[in-house]
Amino acid sequence: MPSAxxxxxxxxxxxPVGACAGLLLLAVAVLAVLAPLLWGDGASAVDTGAIQQGPxxxxxxxxxxxxxxxxxxxxxxxxxxVTLAVTATLIGVGLGLVLGAAPSVLPRRAGRAVTSVVNxxxxxxxxxxxxxxxxxxxxxxxxxxxxxxxxTAPAFARLxxxxxxxxxxxDFVAAARTVGVRRLRLLTRHILPNIAEPLAVxxxxxxxxxxxxFAGLSFLGLGVQAPDYDWGRLLGEGLDRISVTPAPALGxxxxxxxxxxAFNLFGEAAxxxxxxxxxxxxxxxxSTVPPAPATRTSSGDDRPVLAVEDLRVSFPxxxxxxxxxxxxxxxxxxRAGEAVGVVGESGSGKSLTAMxxxxxxxxxxxxxxxxxxxxxVPLLDADERSIRTLLGTSLALVFxxxxxxxxxxxxxxxxxxxxxxxHQHLSRRAAFARAVDRLRAVRVxxxxxxxxxxxxxxxxxxRQRAMIGxxxxxxxxxxxxxxxxxxxxxxxxxxxxxxxxxxxxERGTAxxxxxxxxxxxxxxxxxxxxxxxxxxxxxxPAADLFTAARHPYTRALLAAVPDLDADRDRPxxxxxxxxxxxxxxxxxxxxxxxxxxxxxxxxxxDPEPVTYTPGHTVACWHPGTDHTAPAQKSGTVGGAA
Length: 641
Description:
Blueprint: H1 4-13, H2 16-44, H3 70-105, H4 108-122, H5 126-137, H6 141-168, H7 171-178, H8 183-191, H9 196-219, H10 231-239, H11 247-274, E1 306-316, E2 323-334, E3 339-343, H12 350-357, E4 366-368, E5 371-374, E6 377-378, H13 384-394, E7 395-398, H14 412-423, H15 428-441, H16 447-450, H17 460-471, E8 478-482, H18 490-507, E9 510-515, H19 518-524, E10 527-532, E11 535-541, H20 545-548, H21 552-559, H22 600-604, E12 610-613, E13 616-618, E14 632-633
Parallel strand pairs: 3-9, 3-10, 7-8, 8-9
Antiparallel strand pairs: 1-2, 1-4, 1-5, 5-6, 10-11, 11-13, 12-13, 12-14
Helix pairs in contact: 1-11, 2-3, 2-11, 3-4, 3-6, 3-9, 3-11, 4-6, 5-6, 6-9, 7-8, 9-10, 9-11, 10-11, 14-15, 14-17, 15-17, 17-18
């Protein structure tokens, strides 16, 4: 049975575009190989009795100034013309790929310098650059090849930079960074394979452009020099006689057009073939599977798995020297086996807090905290290598969109195995066997077969299960689930939540669950943190959420949840207004413009958190009333509503 790549190319070859591309490219390749062998002597034979004749039966395109047959010369020139064009294209593509990928690998300042050089070079027309380099390197074949290669490199570098940037923001790249994948491997494994299709198309189109550029340089006398000849030289000689007969110029023109069309059509066919790329798959996994980490038992250490105090995340503001701080002083703790939920509207800073904890906020973003410790290790002070090893083995991330969380051009099993190979130093087979075992642990059916499939072959629920399985490849102390059920239906949502609860019960793993759905958080967490405008405005035990919530924002979120007993004749409850923009934060309480209880004090002073009962903290000047007096104050409590 043919392999998947061969089957894919065979299918493309049966399409009209693929068939035309294959036939034309095959014809050009055959001519390039055989024409000099078959007609090389005839193309060089001088006949003084047939100088500059027009088209005839003996000479279909006529003869040149030495009586040499022009048709034979056009055919023989195929090898040199195509070879030079392909060589120049390889130089341009190779150099462009290096320059375009450099910002993803080099340090920030060096990457910016390379990007600036590319931007300056792209500002000049390609033909002008080619002429400039041709003069620099000198007249001749070598100079023309280098000139065209260097002239095409900036455009290819810009394309590579743009495509790389579009992929670098995907969740699966963030997950790879978290597990500690190095920059070079991140580039070659996760970024470049995902942009192979447009790069292949542009490379083949670039070959056609290089062919035309070479013909132009030779036409101007800067390229191939006598006694060698290519289509450009033949075109220049034919144009001298175009007023008498167009045939000598028509032959090289047709050759350039047909060959350029062959390259372009081949690019379309290659794009179709690379659309679903089949990479090498691991062989059958061995029967022995590495044992899963033992269930974690309490060691008497009461230190939290995650401890955060006064976490702030800032980005450069719209004006020079200004900063925007969308996360403003967040504090939270998560202990072993505990589930802590974080709720709030979009833009409240929930996901950005999780990114900061995972060390995924990159420059120019700036993260500060009075305390940011994971398993007792200060994340802001430790060296990068040890941090990546710690996060790659002890922290699991489950993102909102399971489709974007996986590399679409790599098998699911290989992506799970990458964690074990990188951090546990397992062999390829052993790592793949462990990936199959983890898929089985999260109840993915037929895990051996599924491990060899691609993410698009999984349903949404199975992709989310596989994402949890990726987190279990190590020995996670904490799972950060950022909207893990948003894109799933209610049935699958319940399955995923039960799976997370089972992992907590079996392994003692802590869970930080981020969601817009306050009822999901209340039903699956021990404590709930309500965030608004980058701050935690209320922290409350989940059991007391519906009966003892005091902050007006928390109560508004609860009121907005549809209820079966609600009056159908009345409109659903909504929170008026919109959350403030991070760069336009109002003075005082950020919720004051939307709060019915706000007064002058709320609009002028930002409230500090107040502890009412153990585990219940509220940051509000006018919290809702209940029958519990404040147990501890870290600020002044205003009048109750």
